[in-house]
Amino acid sequence: MKIAIVCYPTFGGSGVVATELGIELANRGHEVHFITYRQPVRLALLNSNVHYHEVNVPEYPLFHYQPYELALSSKLVDMVKLYKIDLLHVHYAIPHAYAGYMAKQMLKDQGISIPMVTTLHGTDITLVGNHPNYKTAVSFSINKSDVVTSVSQSLKDATYELFDIKKEIHVIPNFIELVKHPLEYNSVCQRSTMAKQEERIITHISNFRKVKRIPDVIKIFDKIQKEIPAKLMMVGDGPEKVKAEQLCEKLGIIDKVIFFGNSNEIDSILSNSDLFLLPSETESFGLAALEAMAWRVPVISSNTGGLPEVNFEGVSGYLSNVGAIDEMAENAIKILRDIATLNTFKENALSVAKQFDIHNILPLYESIYYKAIEDSK
Ligand code: GMT
Prior knowledge:
Blueprint (H helix, E strand, L loop, with lengths): L1 E5 L6 H15 L3 E6 L13 E5 L13 H16 L3 E5 L1 H17 L6 E5 L2 H4 L5 H13 L2 E4 L2 H10 L6 E3 L28 E6 L8 H14 L2 E6 L5 H11 L5 E5 L4 H6 L3 E4 L8 H8 L4 E4 L14 E4 L4 H12 L2 H16 L3 H18 L2
Parallel strand pairs: 1-2, 1-4, 2-3, 4-5, 5-6, 6-7, 8-9, 8-11, 9-10, 11-12, 12-13
Helix pairs in contact: 2-3, 3-5, 7-8, 7-11, 10-12
The structure holds ligand GMT.
The site of ligand GMT has 20 residues, from helix 1.
């Protein structure tokens, strides 16, 4: 198949999922065309099966807002015609499903029929998409998609609850490429550069938006480090980062916290970690938690959204109500206090992660693609 993938090229989860999906589809012999405004961060190599087409939005003084959707839909039409693409897969409804639908209509006008699969990722439904200024267009473009998928059952339920959706939504969970055993992994970032031998390594990775409840991460760590020698790795960047640094300063723990910013060493950091913290306000899936679990890192998370579908209570970690900092810290200490318990949670985290192996999940997308192409004939 020839598949065009539209996504955000940044460090956000939806872009990561779209990129990893495209790479694996290409490994399986499909021809994949990424169409976005920058080369996706996780897309290192282009080859005969992996192409990247940049969407350029020319500047013009009259524009207060650059018309990205217009440029994207034009580019989609041009690329579909040039490469004879069979299917569009758009990740994140805003504005990709809308631009994809416009491209479909323009192509239809030229006698070309192409199906569009829209994958809902989370904030495109729960936070941004639900805003009254977007809701009408988001509902419209979801309903006009040929196939709609969501990354968790919880997100599917939220979509039906928040929007007037007439289409069936297929749940296809996010996935992970399982990694080598941490001891076999030749970590670029050595453990000794992060913590002393006797210290536990606790990690948080996100885009530091309010929804991630960054102050909770720091407060939970503060409580843990009072009981157990530990260091906190804060990976990522975003609007809450400066406040996070100030809070660490205020609590007197700045020397126990490393702020990495956006890092390409995520595997190295996770391979050395003992615990992952994800106390988010809402999380449609929690890909960062799954990535940690694939490195045998247990997870302390909130029990919101799709997190209970990924982090299994008492098995791969623990889940608490949003904001229950004391309970999260107590659970973390329960996991970290003795090595036997920690090792059990580590093995369990990996077993749960195995259920989301990319090789199990990818065929679900493939069969949806084949059916969509068949139905569009
Ligand atoms: O919240 C993020 O970290 C980024 C955001 C995105 O759309 O890029 O993530 C959403 O999609 C991810 C991939 O499907 C999910 O794992 C995240 O849970 C989801 N974020 C939220 O729902 C807040």
